[in-house]
Amino acid sequence: MEIHAVSLDLDDTLWPIDPVIKRVEQKVDGWLRKHCPEVAAAWPIESLRTLRNQVASEHPELAHDFGAQRRLTLQRAFASFDLGEDWVERTYEVYERVRNEVECYADTTPALARMAARFPLIGITNGTAQLERIGLHEHFRFSVSAIDVGVAKPDSVIFHHACERLGILPENVLHVGDDPLADVAGARNAGMRTAWLNRRGDSWLHETKPDLQMTDLGALADWLDSET
After folding, report:
1. What is the pLDDT of residue 3?
2. What is the pLDDT of residues 65-85, one digit of tens each?
3. Dihedral Cα 206, 214, 139, 13, nearest 10 deg
4. pLDDT digits (tens, 9 = 90+) for 29-55
5. CA-CA distance, 206 to 185, in Å (whole number)?
6. Which of 52, 95, 96, 111 could potentially form a cystine with 217 if both were Cys, beta carbons 3.0 to 4.6 Å apart?
7. Residues 195, 211: contact at Cβ < 8 Å?
8. Domain 5-16+103-227 has CATH 3.40.50.1000
């Protein structure tokens, strides 16, 4: 396996995403209670979550853009109140700020530093995380999001876009991620090598297997050191 670069998923690969989303909901709710109490009363956390799911269902064209889904959700929540569009944006700013307050897995930063010393690293994500705001950008050449490209993983387009921007053929890029469909199947269909980051020790239940299976990024860095 001739590896010239490594691409990495972000959410649930470099940090757990569920605690982040829960904190986002709590912080947005707290901000609304302080600044727009009538909106907060009408749209508590569970109701706002349901509305967001409804927006996502009604707008499949926004499946690749969670930020647009979130803004549209807030616009609907604010629609019946005599408040300007600026309040939607101010609320969204809270979402965006807290969304990037992540707690990385313990192995993430040291493993990224080791891998980045030997290979160009890039991020490929369906989410809205911003490596610059998180503080991991120094390890990466760049990051590509579904919002940037207009399609989400597992679509091959987003993987090919990243490889073309990197200037390296897909077969020489190892993609690392936690999701069997979005990351492993998507990258494999795009012609890339694949590593399944299986932190929970799950069984592989799909037909096409990844080239590698690792329990953490440190193990991946060890493998890259020994094999390349």
Report:
1. 95
2. 999 999 999 999 999 888 778
3. 50
4. 999 999 999 999 999 999 999 999 999
5. 9
6. 111
7. yes
8. yes
- The pTM score is 0.91
Confidence band, pLDDT 50/70/90 cuts, at residue 228? low
CATH of range 18-99; options 1.20.120.1600, 1.20.120.520, 1.10.155.10, 1.10.10.10: 1.20.120.1600
- Residue 82 tokens read as 């005599």
**Would you state the structure tokens that stand for residue 188, as one six-digit string?**
């494999």
Amino acid, res. 19: P
Phi, psi of 186 (to 5 degrees): -60, -50
pLDDT of residue 128: 93
Q: Exposed, middle or buried by CB within 10 Å (0-12, 13-18, 19+), for 87?
A: middle
Q: Would you list the domain boundaries of the chain? A: 5-16+103-227, 18-99
Three-class SS state of 48: helix
Token pair for residue 43? 């749209």
Contact present, 153 and 186 (Cβ < 8 Å): yes
**The residue count for the chain:** 228
